[in-house]
Amino acid sequence: MDSVSSSSFLSSTFSLHHSLLRRRSSSPTLLRINSAVVEERSPITNPSDNNDRRNKPKTLHNRTNHTLLSSPPKLRPEMTLATALFTTVEDVINTFIDPPSRPSVDPKHVLSDNFAPVLDELPPTDCEIIHGSLPPSLNGAYIRNGPNPQFLPRGPYHLFDGDGMLHAIKIHNGKATLCSRYVKTYKYNVEKQTGAPVMPNVFSGFNGVTASVARGALTAARVLTGQYNPVNGIGLANTSLALFSNRLFALGESDLPYAVRLTESGDIETIGRYDFDGKLAMSMTAHPKTDPITGETFAFRYGPVPPFLTYFRFDSAGKKQRDVPIFSMTSPSFLHDFAITKRHAIFAEIQLGMRMNMLDLVLEGGSPVGTDNGKTPRLGVIPKYAGDESEMKWFEVPGFNIIHAINAWDEDDGNSVVLIAPNIMSIEHTLERMDLVHALVEKVKIDLVTGIVTRHPISARNLDFAVINPAFLGRRSRYVYAAIGDPMPKISGVVKLDVSKGDRDDCTVARRMYGSGCYGGEPFFVARDPGNPEAEEDDGYVVTYVHDEVTGESKFLVMDAKSPELEIVAAVRLPRRVPYGFHGLFVKESDLNKL
């Protein structure tokens, strides 16, 4: 964000409190705005070049207390009359019609602590290894996606509404560089050129009919005056990453994928929105599944109108195959993830979905996404290579609401499927009060012949953002690495589960807590020797970003996946904090070179 607009947002949007977080000398200055912490300095270019001198970013005076604040030296685009008018109308809506009245959409709450955005990008910058050494298996890059609003929000803002920013630590021969770049989506580019937010926030911008009508009219006016064209996409690309078709994609389920690449220096470049030669005209899931044996990728999209679910796949060369619409899903469900086996694809129809009753929206207000307590969750199983939905089978699984799937596999010669997934015990809090959500990892077995469903918990802990060794995707796997909610969306540690243990046993076999005031993100498993078919399933490393909220310092941790305490084998101090985010991916060096 440029210095002028940054000053305006800081002084007019939030009341300023100029208490500073305790920090080490190597950490960037953090400014606390109410409860939101915002970084206000230009990144260093390279720690090794700054031993004797520091880059001195430009400063600005806060008009309230004249405290000097560091600010990125950016120029504000000239605002047109139409932009100024629309911004004024939006301020009226935010102030009088739809203020951020709930914590889940109040930016002072949502952007607190390390959920606050970094206000500028970070070019490739050397990192300091402060413990151990980086193993050769990590030659490549770990890239994590997450929301980072380009402009500080002036009205309702949900955690899911931020622009996608990629944080990539590139490793080569034991040395590491960090780079943080926005995914240059159509939305990002339009708003950067305009100098202000233009497109509505999907998760927080339509709270009740009055707000929806007001924001809908404003959106229509912006489209009609040519501020943006929704045909070019309104997605954020802020959720995850996937590597298939010899391309690396940044994904968000409201739009097409965005192809990105890492340069040799570790910089991140956005190539552009990708439609697979015109075959993918609409959105797709942020959690496609690539079969490690066949190289095919399986995906889906969901929406508010029939067919509420559409299944499709890409062959090993990346060519999209024809859609398989699923009309037997009879209501719009929030379908974020799915699972595949060697023979099947498994979908979850849960109690979270679009609120279709307009009267409820008028009387109760709130988000258009809500829970239907009268609905019984179902699991749908369809042959992986189905040409239509005729062989789709649905099985009721009361109380089983999943947002993420961990893994699945076939048993009994393909007559049964097993699914491992975190069950959200209080689904009604998923969007509004994530701190009240408890996710219980369960193992569910479905007999496809008799229709009998059996299930049991694997661990009583609050666990989500779980991963496996990617080589075992869709096949029977033994180990799961899951993030510990404390409470969600903050993650205080990681556990290793052995799902082969008995039905009544706690499957936890290893644990690593990050320590007081330290929180991390989704873990990711990297095999020590991915080309060795004889390697043990857990022979590798668990990696993640961790942030210390007391010192303001972020680290990249490498843990030994086989050790009983997930022993830290390497820790890298990052040159700038990495905000909490969503999903990540490790890409080995040989694959990076093909992009």
UniProtKB/TrEMBL annotation:
Composition-biased stretches (Basic residues): 55-64
Any Gene Ontology biological process: carotene catabolic process
GO cellular component, one term: chloroplast stroma
Entry keyword Oxidoreductase: yes
Cofactor field: Fe(2+)
Renumbered residue ranges of the record's region Disordered: 41-74
Binding-site residues, Fe cation: H287, H336, H404, H583
Record key words, sorted: Dioxygenase, Iron, Metal-binding, Oxidoreductase
Entries under Pfam families matching the protein: RPE65
Coiled-coil boundaries: none
A molecular function GO annotation: metal ion binding
Cofactor mode of binding and number, as noted: Binds 1 Fe(2+) ion per subunit.
InterPro entries to which the protein is assigned, alphabetical: Carotenoid_Oase (IPR004294)
Keyword GTP-binding: no
Family under the similarity heading: Belongs to the carotenoid oxygenase family.
Name used for this protein in its record: Carotenoid oxygenase
Species the sequence originates in: Arabidopsis suecica (Swedish thale-cress)
